[in-house]
């Protein structure tokens, strides 16, 4: 067997050859999916089984081409139960002799038997997501070869472990998926440090040690290495217990929060006869977590609203094996969405993820595994203590969770308060427990109503379930408005962060979401941003900007609400930009900064922008707000010119040519300035448009959607130089009217006055036919670049957008965003670029939605909750559009924005009809 020897120093430790006082690490594996070491490997069943080969460690063996892929919902008889046999040769430094040596596994799926030089290191470890260790001091040989053997069983011999971890709504894997290393400690050493650093500067610590020492020295340092406060020492009396309580008061520490993640390094040193024996350092944050019954959760004395998401430890090409680089990327994306919290679903994460939450600032709910099923009490007790020992000192952790959705072994509850020196609150997700109401996926009306009349602190640990393009952004504005305004609400957590699509090595590298089980993310498997990403970013902005219209009387002021917990708005940056559009680029602009207003957390105030005197000659105003780190919270856009002003500039009505009309039995045939048009005399519909290049395949419209095409009594007459073809209004038979105006320039105006056919409508508007295969791209002025739904209107920006055709479906390969098909809001004009011909459509009306074809309808659940319905036809111009549901809720139960559109006018009074006015340029120029 080829020998491999790799030595790494842990990020929190270092060698000290003079004093040998700190813990030393010898990595036997790599440190993550971006740094691995090959071990010898034998898989007992499935792909590439029955032979010795090699495998990178850490990894999940399925992703390396071994064994069998399984989703947690697979039937028991179809689940892979293969085992992996590992071997690795290593050397132990000779100067490690006379030290305590542990072998540490940070995560192995799932039953793991370990041998060193042919001898058992200890009892089989059962449970996948927990750091476990064996004392191998008497098993290793110093300065010569050692053999590590590990047998990992994907399916546990303990059925409760399978119930808690492997019968679940996520992918299940096998293998040693987190790092493995040796730790060398002096015989007298610190075993455990439990730290409670309060916001008032009190440091309470319980330190457990082994061996003989006469004092403990404690020192704190700031992030730049400067000593903070006084170094203090506690003497140890002979014969006293091996657990020391250390208390000290520090003055005015910089507090830790998601907004200001201030960290200190606490260094603990065991001393014997003046000699430093062992030293241990921990990153700590001063902060206080308090739950007030029937009130809320307070961090550092401030009542919190948690804007959170659930996050799996996952990467498509490596399964549950991740890296610190991935942890940083995940946290940065959450922070970019203005989130302040993350829930670990549904097991403890890699240690480096918690390190990043500490350093970048995210509140964490750490969770003992249990998805509907539970560990038995002896196993759960052992695993819970392993989780606590590894994670307890992270300031980012403000909650513990005992299982998920019924996976709560209540016999373990008492252990959390007994083991946690900080006494952080314990949650039972999807349960009323401990003063918290965390029920998942409450329908808006029932849920919010129940919340409004309840008494518990409200914090659903999953409240909108994404799937494909539904959920997350769709519905969040309604839910968040209710949560923000309810004094009992502590916010909540979305399901979930990223699409769980795994690389199938048995299917030529296909990304597999197991149908509709895995595409639940706000971002794609490789962090591709969906439309909901930007909706959440705007809705959860800690600075709320009140809507303003850019009227002539606008004085440059914006009303703001500070939704930060600890940040004054004078710590933020406010930038503005005026843009004057030109097709294809942003052309001219003016920009500047505004003075940041002094607005305290949870208060309202005013921002004043000193705009130039010519500001109304621009097309749009943009306001960008950045936090105290210089990161953008959001950019709000405000149209200045209205559609009617654009239409007046773009539409040409005059010309030198005459409008010529010819009638036959069926049609009006009209020519003007090289444009030939055919209208059906009975229905009034446009049948054909043609220019010098040929026919433009845009026709068969307008067809009313959720309205009756009862246009009747058409007449054609000249009105000066223009031709008007119009229907006759009749209150009983033809209450919807259509009028065409053809100008000498060749431009065509369409005006429809209509009444929806129902009181409740999914959508209303006008449809036309256009062959999808002919579409090449569009360029339009309006909100973009992402599409919208009725219950997901936020997150877009006003501008001119060019979009090439694609057939992307959200949550499916190739995860190409933004999608092309769908609804787009606030259309001013659109140029449709076909493979053969192009044409323009302009409106002078506000709030027109452009609809481009019908997106693919992905497989829904058996309840068909998402219901992403679209109008008939191919291209539509809508007065109202449809909403989209979630995996667990139909659109109308996600809040008022998800309900159908409501219209009421039984009298068919023309003055109360809906109106759609469009102008068409078929010249192709």
UniProtKB/TrEMBL annotation:
**Which GO terms are recorded in the biological process aspect for this UniProt protein?**
lactose catabolic process
Keyword Lyase assigned: no
- Report the residue ranges that make up the Glycoside hydrolase family 2 immunoglobulin-like beta-sandwich domain in this protein: 188-287
UniProt cofactor(s):
Ca(2+)
Q: What class of enzyme is it?
A: hydrolase
Q: Which residue ranges does the record assign to the Beta galactosidase small chain/ domain? A: 725-839
Extract the InterPro entries matched here: B-gal_small/dom_5, Bact_Beta-galactosidase, Beta-gal/glucu_dom_sf, Gal_mutarotase_sf_dom, Galactose-bd-like_sf, GH, GH-type_carb-bd, Glyco_hydro_2
Catalyzed reactions per annotation: Hydrolysis of terminal non-reducing beta-D-galactose residues in beta-D-galactosides
Question: Record keywords: Repeat included?
Answer: no
Q: Which family does it belong to?
A: Belongs to the glycosyl hydrolase 2 family.
- Originating organism: Pedobacter endophyticus
Official protein name in the record: beta-galactosidase
Q: Name the keywords, alphabetized.
A: Calcium, Glycosidase, Hydrolase, Signal
Q: Which GO terms describe its molecular function?
A: beta-galactosidase activity; carbohydrate binding
Q: Which residues cross the membrane?
A: none
Subunit details for this protein?
A: Monomer.
Region forming the signal peptide: 1-20
Q: Glycoside hydrolase family 2 catalytic domain: which residues?
A: 289-416
For this record, an example GO cellular component is: beta-galactosidase complex
Domain Glycosyl hydrolases family 2 sugar binding: from-to ranges:
53-186
* Pfam families reported for this sequence: Bgal_small_N, Glyco_hydro_2, Glyco_hydro_2_C, Glyco_hydro_2_N
E.C. number, please?
A: 3.2.1.23
């Amino acid at each position: 067997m080829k020998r491999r020897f790799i030595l790494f120093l842990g990020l929190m430790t270092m060698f000290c050859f003079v004093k040998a006082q700190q813990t030393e690490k010898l990595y036997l594996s790599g440190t993550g999916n971006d740094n691995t070491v090959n071990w010898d490997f034998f898989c007992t069943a499935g792909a590439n089984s029955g032979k010795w080969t090699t495998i990178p460690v850490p990894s999940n063996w399925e992703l390396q081409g071994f064994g069998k892929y399984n989703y947690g919902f697979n039937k028991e008889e179809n689940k892979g139960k293969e085992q992996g046999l590992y071997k690795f040769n290593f050397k132990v430094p000779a100067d490690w002799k006379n030290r305590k040596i542990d072998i540490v596994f940070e995560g192995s799926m799932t039953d793991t038997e370990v041998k060193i030089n042919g001898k058992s290191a200890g009892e089989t470890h059962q449970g996948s997501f927990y750091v476990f260790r064996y004392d191998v001091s008497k098993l290793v040989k110093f300065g010569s070869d050692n053999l590590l053997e590990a047998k990992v069983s994907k399916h546990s011999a303990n059925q409760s472990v399978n119930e808690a971890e492997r019968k679940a709504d996520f992918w299940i894997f096998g293998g040693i998926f987190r790092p493995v290393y040796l730790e060398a400690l002096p015989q007298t050493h610190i075993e455990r440090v439990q730290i409670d650093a309060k916001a008032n500067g009190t440091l309470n610590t319980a330190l457990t040690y082994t061996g003989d020492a006469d004092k403990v020295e404690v020192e704190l340092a700031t992030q730049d290495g400067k000593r903070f406060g006084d170094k203090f020492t506690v003497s140890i009396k002979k014969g006293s217990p091996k657990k020391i309580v250390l208390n000290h008061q520090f003055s005015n520490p910089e507090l830790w929060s998601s907004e200001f993640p201030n960290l200190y390094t606490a260094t603990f040193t065991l001393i014997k006869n003046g000699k430093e024996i062992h030293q241990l350092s921990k990153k700590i944050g001063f902060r206080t977590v308090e739950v007030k019954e029937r009130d809320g959760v307070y961090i550092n004395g401030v009542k919190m609203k948690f804007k959170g998401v659930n996050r799996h430890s996952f990467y498509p090409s490596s399964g549950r094996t991740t890296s610190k680089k991935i942890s940083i990327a995940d946290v940065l994306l959450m922070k970019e969405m203005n989130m302040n919290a993350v829930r670990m679903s549904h097991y403890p994460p890699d240690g480096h993820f918690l390190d990043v939450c500490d350093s970048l600032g995210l509140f964490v709910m750490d969770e003992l595994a249990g998805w509907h099923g539970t560990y038995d009490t002896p196993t759960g007790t052992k695993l819970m203590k392993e989780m606590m020992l590894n994670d307890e000192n992270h300031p980012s952790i403000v909650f513990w969770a005992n299982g998920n959705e019924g996976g709560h072994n209540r016999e373990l509850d008492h252990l959390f308060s007994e083991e946690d020196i900080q006494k952080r609150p314990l949650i039972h997700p999807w349960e009323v427990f401990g003063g918290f109401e965390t029920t998942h996926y409450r329908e808006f009306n029932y849920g919010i109503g129940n919340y409004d009349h309840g008494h518990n602190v409200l914090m659903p640990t999953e409240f909108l379930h994404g799937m494909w393009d539904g959920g997350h952004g769709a519905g969040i504005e309604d839910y968040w408005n209710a949560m923000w305004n309810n004094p009992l609400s502590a916010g909540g957590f979305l399901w979930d962060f990223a699409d769980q699509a795994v690389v199938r090595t048995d299917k030529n590298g296909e990304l597999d979401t197991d149908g509709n089980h895995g595409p639940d993310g706000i971002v794609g498997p490789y962090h591709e941003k969906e439309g909901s990403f930007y909706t959440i970013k705007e809705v959860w902005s800690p600075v709320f900007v009140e809507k303003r219209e850019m009227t002539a009387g606008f004085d440059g002021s914006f009303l703001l609400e500070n939704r930060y917990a600890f940040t004054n708005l004078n710590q933020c940056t406010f930038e503005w930009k005026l843009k004057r559009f030109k097709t294809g680029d942003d052309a001219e602009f003016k920009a500047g900064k505004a003075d940041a207003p002094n607005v305290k957390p949870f208060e309202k105030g005013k921002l004043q922008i000193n705009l130039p005197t010519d500001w109304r000659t621009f097309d749009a105003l943009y306001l960008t707000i950045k936090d105290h780190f210089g990161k953008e919270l959001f950019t709000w856009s405000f149209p200045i010119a209205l559609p009617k002003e654009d239409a007046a500039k773009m539409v040409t009505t005059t010309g030198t040519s005459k409008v010529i009309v010819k009638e036959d039995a069926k049609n009006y045939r009209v020519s003007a300035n090289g444009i030939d048009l055919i209208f059906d005399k009975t229905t009034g519909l446009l049948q054909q448009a043609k220019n010098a290049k040929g026919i433009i395949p845009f026709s068969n419209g307008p067809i009313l959607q959720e309205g009756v095409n009862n246009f009747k009594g058409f007449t054609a007459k000249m009105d000066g130089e223009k031709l008007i073809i119009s229907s006759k209004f009749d209150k009983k038979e033809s209450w919807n009217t259509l009028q065409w105006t053809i100008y000498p320039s060749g431009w065509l105006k369409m005006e429809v006055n209509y009444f929806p056919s129902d009181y409740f409508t999914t959508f209303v508007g006008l449809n036309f036919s256009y062959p999808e295969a002919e579409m090449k791209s569009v360029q339009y002025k309006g909100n973009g670049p992402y599409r919208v739904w009725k219950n997901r209107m936020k997150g877009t920006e006003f501008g001119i957008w060019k979009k090439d055709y694609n057939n992307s479906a959200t949550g499916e390969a190739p995860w190409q965003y933004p999608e092309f098909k769908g609804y787009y809001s606030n259309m001013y004009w659109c140029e449709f670029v076909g493979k053969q011909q192009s044409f323009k459509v302009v409106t002078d009306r506000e709030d027109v939605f452009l609809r481009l074809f019908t997106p693919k309808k992905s497989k829904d659940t058996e309840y068909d909750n998402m219901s992403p319905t679209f109008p008939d036809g191919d291209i539509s111009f809508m007065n109202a559009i449809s909403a989209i549901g979630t995996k667990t809720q139909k659109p109308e139960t996600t809040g008022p924005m998800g309900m159908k559109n409501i219209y009421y006018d039984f009298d068919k009074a023309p003055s109360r009809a809906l109106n759609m006015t469009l102008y068409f340029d078929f010249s192709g120029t």
